[in-house]
Amino acid sequence: MLGLAGIPLGLRFRFLDPSAEAPAAEVGELVVAAYDDPAALVRLAEGADAVTYEFENVPVEAARSVRALPPARALELGQDRLTEKDLFARLGIPTARYGSVADAGLPALVKSRRLGYDGKGQRLLHADEPLGQHELAEELVSFDRELSLVAVRGLNGDTRFWPLAENEHRDGILRVTRAPAPHAPTAAAEELVTRLLDELGYVGVIALELFEAGGRLLANEFAPRVHNTGHWTIDGAETSQFENHLRAILGLPLGSTAARAPSAMVNLIGGTPDVAALLALPGAHVHLYGKDPRPGRKLGHVTLVGAHGDVVDEAIRLADEASC
Amino acid sequence: MLGLAGIPLGLRFRFLDPSAEAPAAEVGELVVAAYDDPAALVRLAEGADAVTYEFENVPVEAARSVRALPPARALELGQDRLTEKDLFARLGIPTARYGSVADAGLPALVKSRRLGYDGKGQRLLHADEPLGQHELAEELVSFDRELSLVAVRGLNGDTRFWPLAENEHRDGILRVTRAPAPHAPTAAAEELVTRLLDELGYVGVIALELFEAGGRLLANEFAPRVHNTGHWTIDGAETSQFENHLRAILGLPLGSTAARAPSAMVNLIGGTPDVAALLALPGAHVHLYGKDPRPGRKLGHVTLVGAHGDVVDEAIRLADEASC
């Protein structure tokens, strides 16, 4: 999606991916190697005006060696849930209680500190027990809703925020994003993200996931990259997160992040519905990633722009039916 | 632009182009050969769900041999200005007077019947003189403005019209398109295009160029393809002409052709302005085609969505400055 957004800007792409099946090959040159392969990193960066990443588990040293943006420090702090939470605490960004089980209280959500995503590596604890060395306990928050704020900051510090999005997860995987979120605590959320951006000397797109609980905002995690809860911006916002990420890391002026219309994005997980059925929905824009189906794998998404609730429900039904 | 629109739909592309420098190679496989090379045509169509063209001077027999859509008959009738005008006449679509210089009246615009585009192969005649065998005289119309209607018709006959666009040419080359055109004679124009679509059993995107003169609409020419005066739809309409063209020829449901906001498209001709300067304009979306600069060549365009007149003027100024 970065490549598709960048080609019209006259950009050309080289991608590094451990898989020869990486769909990015459709829109640029593909270097197939491990993320930390020194020769591949040299090849990746050769002649490039900018290097970036869109997967938060790329090795920090690899990102640093090619001077990737967003800054490797954001990647480093975000890769460990403990340093991430400590960063939030240091910046006065409220979070659920965390640390040992005693710190978090019971019931506690135990998460691996590293390499967890889409709910993997999480378990619920109802009684105190020692944690593994690489685990972290978090207070189980009873929240009203999940929100996310996607923002972009340019090389010159210019910062824009897309409207807050409201997210529904299932089995730890993002299922639906609706944006702009109704009755959104916009100013409060933007203020929290600004602290992060300033602290990290950030450049590029960032996403902050938040719980709204009894009128309070609690930061859950941030992602130093374009984010699934920002995919609706391709069709639903004046400038997409992908285009603005590229503009940011290249020092180009940022585009408007205003919503064009209320939008909903439905992930296509594990299987893909009939494209014709999706396109028959009013306001539907289909995005398939060219990946082989696999249970729990995000294969694409459909965005409904300006669509009513029943249209979104129908898209969810089609996605569920095809899901496996 | 067709490739960029189709990849998110899960489509993959193979392109036939006589030039190895064809920019389409960025988004698919490129077969370099003449348009009428039999082996290349076989290779082009091999395994394809649909074949189309986006250049109206591809040989009719080549298009027919691969069962291209829009139907080859549309291509055939449109390639010769005389058969095109005769088609308009047969369908009761008003045009300027045409034929011999006597038919057209003086002053007359003399055009080559074939292979003219961007004003090439045209001359103004102030006195009667015999025409060449492959020439056609047309009444020089003193029009109020130039309009174009871009429409799309699906395999099942479902038809959608984008809003009428108002166009400014210079030296025979399209310079600016504004859409939706103010005070547009929408119903009348849609009725004319419908006659064409029905007659041709049309599938895909079509553009009809019109002169508005003293309240009358006169058809100038039609293009059986995605059209430069429809480029604004990428950013300014709910569904772009490129996406709907693909949906149409593949038998998929068509998307809404409504405008998202008033838009202006400015062609970048002969040279490309500084991309940062263009992107600094409110509502700007830049599209570069990856072509080498050459005087009079369309190298890209910038669309200003929701932009005021002075922003559009500034874009025109930047384009002119870079033009050569």
Model description:
The structure is a homodimer of 324-residue chains. Chain A has 324 residues and is an alpha+beta fold. Chain A has helices spanning 2-6, 38-45, 60-65, 72-79, 81-90, 101-104, 186-200, 233-236, 241-249, 275-279, 309-322; strands at 14-17, 29-32, 98-99, 108-112, 122-125, 135-139, 145-153, 159-161, 165-170, 173-179, 204-213, 216-223, 263-269, 284-288, 298-305. In chain A, 27% of the residues lie in helices and 27% in strands. In chain A, strands 7, 8, 9, 10, 11, 12, 13, 14 and 15 form a 9-stranded antiparallel β-sheet that branches. A 4-stranded antiparallel β-sheet of chain A has the order 3-6-4-5. A two-stranded parallel sheet of chain A has the order 1-2. In chain A, a hairpin with a 2-residue loop joins strand 11 and strand 12 (216-223). The longest helix of chain A is centred in the middle third of the chain and has 15 residues, at 186-200. Chain A is globular. Chain A starts with a helix and ends with a helix. The A-B interface holds A 4, 7-10, 12, 26-28, 238-239, 247, 251-253, 255-256, 260-261, 272, 275-276, 279-280, 282-288, 290, 300, 305-306 and B 4, 7-10, 12, 26-28, 238-239, 247, 251-253, 255-256, 260-261, 272, 275-276, 279-280, 282-288, 290, 300, 305-306.
